[in-house]
Amino acid sequence: MHKICLLGGTGFVGRHLASNLIRAGWQVRIPTQQRERHRDLLLYSNIELVPANIHDQEQLNNLIDGCEVVINTVGILNESGNDGSGFHKVHVELPQKIVNACQANDVNHLLHISAINADVTEAPSHYLRTKGMGENLLHSAEGLNVTIFRPSVIFGKDDSFLNKFIALLRVPSPIFMLPSANVKLAPIWIEDVAAAMLKTIYKPEHYGKSYNLCGSTVYTLQDLVAYTAKLLQVKRFIIPLGNSISHKIALFMELIPGKPYSIDNYKSATLKNSCKDNNHLEQLGITPHSLEEVMSKYFNITKTHKELYSDFRDQARKSEV
Fold first, then answer.
1. What is the pTM assigned to this prediction?
2. Beta strand pairing status for 188-189 and 69-72?
């Protein structure tokens, strides 16, 4: 049976990818430092859950030994400090170690998840600059064929995006103050991302390519929070906050454990998180599912799906670019 090493396989994206890989007939090796927390993955006969520290070069080399393909989904949205070193460790140093391990084991295809707006010189945040550094490093790796995916925000039932707002909206309050409310996003369903990635495995026509992945519609963050409130059947008066106040709130929220919103997040949100005219999803043979179609299945809503869909599209059309 063909074997893939899936780095980040215990996370949101990784778990969905693992499920799709298993259905496609792959044996999936997933590293973790907390094996007991992910015992549910052991129920799958095609998943090999291996205790390992992927930041240790020797352990990473051993982990990739015997695999034909490596997929890297590891990334962070915030670091513990503020100097960019945390982002650099995960988005630059780790990819270099993955390259070393692939070269040591004669693995010639790596799939890697980056981000829309990743750019070494022009990006405003540590997150996006280090993502760009990682892309450049991988594409220049000798003897390694790399396929990079640059998704907009990824959503799904168990995501960390909409579920963050679900938790906040469940806090009783008549108002909801929203930083970076006007940032544009093109949310893409996790299953569409997974399907797109699987189509490129071991196919030479995808080597050396970078693919932007977006949903079919562009929304503002305020649109998405309003829609989420409607799904939850809660009434909230959403107050969009301007750049100055959003920046101040980011400074304050950096002091909260877990950094729910940071200065780096704020800087990333100054750019449109959409594919504009270069969405490669359909080029990969995937027709994107709409956010409304997917998320409404997980909630009991008073309006019919058709009514809710019509209301939301009318609202979001004002924000499309």
1. 0.91
2. unpaired
